Amino acid sequence: ALVEEEPVEIVDKSKWNGIAVYVDHEDGNIHPVTFELIGKARELASKIGHEVYCVFMGSGITNSADELLHYGADKVFVYDDEKLKNYISETYTAVFEDFINKVKPSVILVGATTVGRELAPRVAARFKTGLTADCTILDINGETDLIQIRPAFGGNIMAQIVTPNNRPQLATVRYKVMNSPERSDEIHGEKIICKIDGRKLETATEVLEISPKEKVKTIESADVIVALGRGVKSKDDIKIFEKLANLLDGEIACTRPLIEAGWLDAKHQIGLSGRTVRPRLIIACGISGAVQFTAGMNNSEYIFAINKDEKAPIFKTAHYGITGDIYEIVPALIKRIEEGR
Amino acid sequence: MKIAVCIKQVPDTNKVEVDPVTGVLKRNGVDSKMNPYDLYALETALRLKEQYGGEVRVITMGPPQAEAVIYEAFSMGVDDGYLITDRAFAGADVLATSRAISQGLKKSGEFDIIICGKQSTDGDTAQVGPEISEYLSLSSVTNVTEIISADAKSITVKRTLPLAVETVKLAFPCLISVEKDIYIPRLPSYLKKQATKDRKITLFTLGDFDDTDPMHYGLNGSPTQVQRIFPPEVNDKREMWQGESGEIVSKFAGKLKELKFI
Ligand SMILES: Cc1cc2nc3c(=O)[nH]c(=O)nc-3n(C[C@H](O)[C@H](O)[C@H](O)COP(=O)(O)OP(=O)(O)OC[C@H]3O[C@@H](n4cnc5c(N)ncnc54)[C@H](O)[C@@H]3O)c2cc1C
Ligand SMILES: Cc1cc2nc3c(=O)[nH]c(=O)nc-3n(C[C@H](O)[C@H](O)[C@H](O)COP(=O)(O)OP(=O)(O)OC[C@H]3O[C@@H](n4cnc5c(N)ncnc54)[C@H](O)[C@@H]3O)c2cc1C
Fold first, then answer.
1. CA A244 to CA A252: how far, in whole Å?
2. Which one of A169, A201, A233 terminates a domain?
3. pTM
4. Does the distance separating the beta carbons of B127 and A120 come in below 8 Å?
5. What residues of chain B lie within 8 A of the CB of A160, using their CB?
6. Is domain B2-216 given the CATH code 3.40.50.620 in the classification?
7. Do A253 and A161 share a structural domain?
8. Tens digit of pLDDT for each residue in B45-71?
9. Ligand 1 atom 39: the closest Cα is on which residue?
10. Hey, which residues 186-245 in chain B have their CB within 8 Å of chain A?
11. Is residue A241 classed as helix, strand or coil in its secondary structure?
């Protein structure tokens, strides 16, 4: 052949050890997705006899790092530097590079937060390695290859993806997809303070201002959701369902047609073009169960659905399907709960 | 201002099906369209041009028929189009896609800013923008919701974070990925469509790039491998409750109590 074939570089997988978790945080307040990922990392690591690492970068964060040791990290690598006060993709990538070269982890899990979704691809491209987005299931085989399952096409199909010839292997995972481990009172593992050459943290990018968004109760953070669909006949009737939500200490959410009708604010919309929620309990009232809706809630722990049409697709998603009229069931349920108090 | 926008052709529907025997996506008979998120990137670019002058080019990687999205961009007011197309690029994951687009962007001339959509509706990773910025050593921000101002050397934008809104100043050249709804995309104009229907698109194949190593592109240059594709699981451990509503309500309340919600 005229073209000389470059031999494919075979990576020596035995040189890459450990399951690492990127610690997502704002000013040292650790995002809970981090703990969920430590839990997953522990499970994967125990299958292949590896350790669990955390990489924590920021300014004034050294003390917060202890918290990670309550969740089962073996080693927490801390880069505490004034120049890392604000997240900037170039400087954080430089720190990540330093960490990877030093530690050579086999797997890196990153929360699919705004920062994680920007940082992970930059790091993957720097190491010319694979990154699988928004994984919902993770496993590992004897070759230390991460088995990554993720939805694509808006949740209409699932793909199983591996990165067999490159290390590290990167994956992002959304919040509330994995289960958080229990916080242990005892501390386990150690904190390792790392330094990086300040010249690597130079950047032309300037964060001029950070203004907090108004803190609102979001459906994403709710443990219990009462979700309303077109089975609700008028804007006024929402009150009935709000009462149920209040009794259960939950929030009201809805399908897209109710947003379009102007009955509720857009931030209440569940689904593909709305929010993804994963409450412990969701009660779908008068919702047909279009895939654009269920894609945003099908990971909820307990799904109840009330619909008068026994063939409604929502019953494929619900764990407990109730055939009936929401205007009968819900007021009766409210009465029952109130009586039980 | 020299602006480049990355646009992708995607299937017109995301109700795709998997062949249960071969495990391959059934793509036949599916129409294509421009990735809807890229319309926001285009609109942002055209507004920057209107305000600060300059030119807007689009670049896409795909099969020859992906030129359709370039013509659509022309009819919205874009000046130039580049199509990266070669069998060597087929089967690319994000790493290989971003490498090819970065090479194409370099060949297409100088730029101050590259604008990407938030994500595609098919692969749906939202990773291509940040990976291009790494290949080209550019500063970058994602989730841009507003352009504040620009001058000859820099652009200032707002980006949204879960708990905050950040104002960031980026020096040119740079890359931004814009949120949907940053601006309402304009409709294609019939007159512009007529005027640009014969405009030439520049084609790039592997031989046109600085890096012509075929192992860097397509399936060969993709570290991720899709092992199988399957439909999402239907939850089968479900219970149906039917019948007299008083009974159902008792069951319902009982279950909520058992699960410690009441
Ligand atoms: C690109 C795209 C994105 C989309 N994104 C979203 C999204 O993010 N979120 C979303 O929700 N939708 C989305 N949609 C719309 C989606 O396809 C559905 O149209 C929508 O979810 C239907 O809402 P629904 O279930 O409330 O209404 P319907 O489909 O009209 O269902 C109403 C249901 O209520 C039942 N019902 C009526 N009266 C009663 C009663 N008294 N008691 C009990 N049951 C009753 C009926 O049997 C029926 O099943 C999207 C669509 C597209 C094309
Ligand atoms: C089911 C499935 C799952 C996949 N999962 C992964 C995965 O986890 N990791 C992985 O590395 N690859 C994955 N891929 C491959 C990936 O989808 C393709 O590499 C694709 O070319 C680019 O990624 P994207 O569609 O996710 O684009 P995104 O990163 O979502 O697109 C963001 C923006 O980048 C620009 N852009 C994207 N593609 C092009 C293009 N071809 N031309 C011009 N501009 C473009 C647009 O501005 C777009 O708005 C998957 C593919 C399938 C079919």
1. 9
2. A201
3. 0.80
4. yes
5. 226-230
6. yes
7. no
8. 999 999 999 999 999 999 999 999 999
9. A231
10. 213-215, 222-235, 237-242, 245
11. helix
